[in-house]
Design a protein that fits this description.
The structure is a single chain. The chain is α+β, with helices and mostly antiparallel strands. The protein has one domain: Cyclic phosphodiesterase (Cyclic Phosphodiesterase, Chain: A), CATH 3.90.1140. Strands 1, 2, 3, 4, 5, 6, 7 and 8 form an eight-stranded antiparallel sheet that branches.
Length: about 180
């Protein structure tokens, strides 16, 4: 990626009841570990379904494609079955890659990849993607055990209604638009 490219993300957002459960866990983990990254950056509970690189001048086109995609999608339920992690540094709720999530991920990429390249080393491409909702990130080894003990208090399985699609600039994190799902 050249330096003029920005990474953008398209994410699913949950109903208030599920968001409140996840937000409480994020806050409790931050309090227990001193790791406030998610809170300080005001990152809401979500599942990223795609990341893409674009120049700032192409942002409007990527947003237009996201809006077109959002208009074709319906609200659905995300099933979280367990707590998992990426290399002991990111703790998350693992979403089941069921038909609802897999189809949404596949359709988004089918639409957007004709004009934009994937971001985040391709980790969100349909064949690689691991649906997850981050509870804590950038954890040190010492913070990980504390974070895990707090996260294990979340009552699982957890069902979360995905009712909105968000469009974001990633670094720095900035919410640009949300679309309500039918």
């Amino acid at each position: 990626m050249n330096s003029s490219m920005i990474t953008y993300a398209v994410s699913l957002h949950f109903s208030t009841d599920a968001s409140d459960i996840i937000t409480k866990a994020v806050r409790d983990i931050a309090e227990a570990t001193g790791n406030n990254f998610i809170i300080e950056n005001k990152i809401p509970p979500h599942i990223t379904i795609g990341t893409f690189h674009a120049r700032k001048e192409d942002e409007a086109r990527l947003l237009q494609l996201t809006a077109e995609f959002a208009r074709t999608q319906k609200a659905g339920v995300v099933h979280f079955s367990k707590i998992d992690n990426f290399k002991g540094k990111v703790l998350f709720l693992k979403g089941e890659k069921d038909f609802f999530l897999a189809q949404m991920n596949r359709q988004l990429h089918s639409l957007v990849l004709s004009e934009f390249e994937s971001g985040e080393n391709g980790y969100y491409l349909p064949e690689i993607w691991c649906p997850h909702t981050t509870l804590a990130t950038r954890l040190s080894q010492g913070q990980f055990a504390k974070a895990l003990s707090v996260a294990e208090k979340i009552s699982l399985p957890l069902e979360a209604k995905a009712c909105e699609i968000g469009f974001y600039q990633c670094s720095p994190f900035l919410e640009l638009k949300r679309f309500v799902l039918k």
